[in-house]
Design a protein that fits this description.
Distance between the termini: 32 Å
Mean pLDDT: 75
Strand content: under 5%
Largest sheet: none
Shape: elongated
Length: 178
């Protein structure tokens, strides 16, 4: 760690003193935090991201401990309820990974939605496949079959619209994490 002497005018010094009182942190940490935030802003502007790591079974997890203020803990606990994570650790890990890596990770709620969408798409495919099998075997279609076909097509269109809207919503929320 190197030592530097910095000179500030009175206005900046007063602002630093206010921050010191409010954050209850030493001025060096405040300055370091401000510099780190500025560096992060520069990285975002350059769109520099860390490529995803390819995890191998040989990698060991490392435990990291740190302290946060009670307000921050309450905020994170509220986010746990909204996001569907199971613990404070999983919420913090999710936020950290999404701030580091280029490919964003999804919340448990979003993954549940994806699974539901996949199921709906499979069911639509089965319905269409059943209709085409009957047509290909040249079975006579009754008027009831035409009504069922029209209802199935309408259902397919509705589900495609629903899926499209949900995907837009998920990708929109994921893009805010960039």
């Amino acid at each position: 760690m190197s030592k530097r002497i910095l000179k500030f005018d009175d206005r900046v010094d007063n602002l630093l003193q206010e921050l010191k009182q409010e954050l209850k942190m030493p001025i060096n940490k405040i300055i370091t935090m401000i510099i780190n935030e500025k560096l992060e802003d520069i990285k975002r502007l350059k769109k520099e991201t860390v490529e995803d790591l390819k995890f191998e079974n040989t990698q060991k997890e490392t435990e990291i401990r740190f302290r946060i203020f009670e307000k921050e803990k309450i905020f994170l606990e509220e986010q746990i309820k909204k996001n569907g994570n199971s613990s404070l650790t999983s919420e913090i890990r999710f936020r950290l990974l999404n701030s580091i890596y280029k490919n964003k990770y999804f919340l448990p709620i979003e993954l549940t939605e994806f699974k539901n969408l996949v199921y709906q798409i499979k069911m639509i495919g089965l319905n269409i496949n059943g209709i085409f099998k009957r047509v290909n075997f040249k079975e006579e279609l009754k008027s009831e079959d035409y009504i069922n076909l029209q209802n199935s097509i309408n259902e397919v269109n509705e589900k495609i619209d629903l899926i499209n809207n949900e995907m837009k919503s998920i990708f929109k929320s994921a893009s805010y994490r960039d």
